[in-house]
Amino acid sequence: MMSSQVSPVKVFIRIRPTARFAHELIECPPDQQTLKVRSRKDSDKGKRNNQLSSWVFQLNGILDNVSQEDTYDRVARSVVLGAFAGYNGTIMCFGQTGAGKTYTMTGAAETYKHRGIIPRALQEVFQEVEHRVDHTFSVHLSFLEIYNETMVDLLSSIKKGKSLNSGVLTVIEEPGGGVSVKGLSLHLVHNEEEALNLLFEGEMNRIIGQHALNKHSSRSHCIFTIHIESRSRTLSDAKYITSKLNLVDLAGSERLSKTGSEGQVQMEAMYINKSLSFLEQVILALADSRREHVPFRQSKLTHALKDSLGGNCNTVLVANIYGEAAQIEETLSTLRFASRMKCVQTKPSINEHVDPVKSVTIYQLQVRRLEKEIQFLKEELSMCNTLTYRVGVSNEILSERQLEEVRSQVQRYLSGLLDEIPIVSITQTQEVFAQFKKVVLEQQKKLREQIAPRNPRVEKAMNTTPSIVAEVQGSVGAVGEVDSCGYGLGLAKSSQKHQRTVSPKPSKARKDKQISRKEGAASQPPVENITVQAEQPLNLSESDMTTHEPPKQAPEQQQQQQQQQQQHPRTDSPPPKAEAFEDFKAERGSEINRILKENKAVLSERTTQLRVLTDVINTTKRDLDYITYELRQFRERKQSQGQFVSSEGEPVLEEAELSLVMQLKELKNRYRQAYEDFSSTKTEVSYCQHLVNQCRTRLLTEFERWYNESFLFPDEVLSVLETGPVRPGHIPVDKALTLMDDEEHSDGLHHKLHADSTVSFYNAYNRTLKRRGSRQVS
Ligand SMILES: Nc1ncnc2c1ncn2[C@@H]1O[C@H](COP(=O)(O)OP(=O)(O)OP(=O)(O)O)[C@@H](O)[C@H]1O
């Protein structure tokens, strides 16, 4: 049930038309909401009073000379429509016998025009059911009569009704605060006509007693209920709403003395008066916010109307009055009841429920649907795989336009104009790789054409130098913290050094050339701006230096190399990296090295400071614990000996205790200060560590580049690299130098990728051909 707002009961006065209307006693001002009544009688005591008393009643509307149609519109329509939104509604007529309750509620059966609220409500309900096509509705009816405190099912004569209990009817309270009548039959109706049939059937069954005032007077209370249940057609969830419309025709409220009834009828009148009196008590209790208990259970009527009066319901009361002078007492009584009812507040709220069975079914359906979907996707995936590896390739080959797009993407990616190449399909991804390889091969070919025939040294470098990537990774891993500053090259022990017969250092002229080349390079940022992130590992070890050993060669190769070395001067061979690194730090990389050393010095100093502060904190903490313990001990001792109190009655601190308190205070301050210093120093340490790491990475990266470009690559290689789309770092440069795929290999690459994919298809095709051939032969 959804949260509700408080809403007061709406009260209307309906005046039965009469030629003898007591205009001198009842005045209806034009505002249509006020009734002024005068009377010479003391209505409470039932005696004549010479004083003329007057009363003013303020209500929601006065229905004087108002048609049945307008009465329905003003009184009932909103309540009936509210039921379609899930709100319960109650409309009840109250008043003395013959004042027009039944006329208002059921109407005059003879003429269609004079039909009352119930038939009009039924008409509206079925019109709404027809209009609201997005919902399915079920409408049930029940008709209850309360006669002499006995509940009677007015539709029990109808066989089809569903009733939980065919025995005695009892009012039961439902968990949400509502009430229902156990055993009362509920009848499913599909249209207005079926519903009206039931209404008339119930009316026929109504017990009618002879009465002095009105021979057709109803001596019972009747509750005609329309039960509506609606479910969305569009949302297949388990939620649904229910509502009920109680249309109540109360028995006449006249006094016993006035009826002049005897015997059975007098008994009826007594019961009626009693139940209406209980109704009044309930209304009084509901109108008084201080009252905690409301006596609903005192009568069947009040119990059955419990949720209509004080619960989850839009409630409207029509108080019918018979405006003749002779009835002024009853009129006053009815109006008093009506104005009390106006103070009653209800809490209408939408009755939304969740169908437990349906919710399980819905989840089951969802699970089943998802399982189906998974199955479908699995099948689609397997079909896709099948197609990709067998026949699909021929269908999925990229068009010329698509190929061109991939080429363009790769070019833009390599030149830095595109950040990433999105993966679209397997063939597109294959094509991207193919294009990358093609670029590499093209560059390699260009290199070979330009330099190989003219420069045998490059051939040699290409054959003897490990891959640049391996070099960068391996060599970076070869430098460690072994020098005096805690940093430097991890120099291999002399016994582990490979024996080189060549001069370890490049000539001065060569070095100058190298330096000027690097200094001219645009990629060289100022050393202060150390923001390059490390991509290489930083931890370097001595043993890694052995990775600089030339790869093991076959004896023939060694012999060939020795011959080559004899042919070419030794100065052409690259120096050992350890020595080159020392040179680099002294010259080309001196500035970075200096900054690195400075940063390391600051780091070392801050680390020492941090250590000192840690000691201070620990010592202070120990002292704090000790003084706290001492103070506690002192106070416990003092407690056992009794408290010293000054002449003013204040507790007195002893000198020793005061000293401990002061020490504690001082220690706390020291601790706080040391902790603050520790925190800020710790931040500094991690920042310095970060700077050191950056510098170290930078030094190594610069060294590797310098080493490679100075000793391994000739100018021709560098010039080609600078002009091509592949920038240093994009691909392993040595790959470009050492990979020697021939032209056909390059050209055939794209086809091979597809050929791999089509192999299954062609294998199968060839097998079929073979089988066919063998059959022909045989
Ligand atoms: N507003 C009205 N317009 C025309 N006729 C009316 C109106 N109100 C009541 N009457 C007529 O007055 C007579 C008594 O009305 P009705 O039977 O509705 O009174 P009641 O309050 O229902 O009495 P009871 O105590 O028997 O239930 C009926 O013949 C009815 O047609």
TrEMBL record:
Binding site for ATP: 95-102
Biased composition (Polar residues): 530-544
UniProt keywords, alphabetically: ATP-binding, Cell projection, Cilium, Coiled coil, Cytoplasm, Cytoskeleton, Flagellum, Microtubule, Motor protein, Nucleotide-binding, Phosphoprotein
Top-rank taxon: Eukaryota
Biased composition (Low complexity): 557-567
GO molecular function terms attached to this record: ATP binding; microtubule binding; microtubule motor activity
SUPFAM superfamilies: P-loop containing nucleoside triphosphate hydrolases
Coiled-coil ranges (or none): 360-387
Domain Kinesin motor: residue ranges: 8-344
UniProt cross-references to PROSITE patterns, sorted A to Z: KINESIN_MOTOR_1, KINESIN_MOTOR_2
InterPro entries on file: KIF6/9_C, Kinesin-like_fam, Kinesin_motor_CS, Kinesin_motor_dom, Kinesin_motor_dom_sf, P-loop_NTPase
Protein localization: Cytoplasm, Cytoskeleton, Flagellum axoneme
Gene Ontology BP annotations: microtubule-based movement; system development
GO CC entries: microtubule
Region of interest (Disordered), ranges: 492-578
Chief place of localization: cytoplasm
Complex formation: Interacts with HYDIN.
Role this protein plays: Essential for normal male fertility and for progressive motility of spermatozoa.
Protein family according to the UniProt entry: Belongs to the TRAFAC class myosin-kinesin ATPase superfamily. Kinesin family.
UniProt name for this protein: Kinesin-like protein
Protein encoded by which gene: kif9
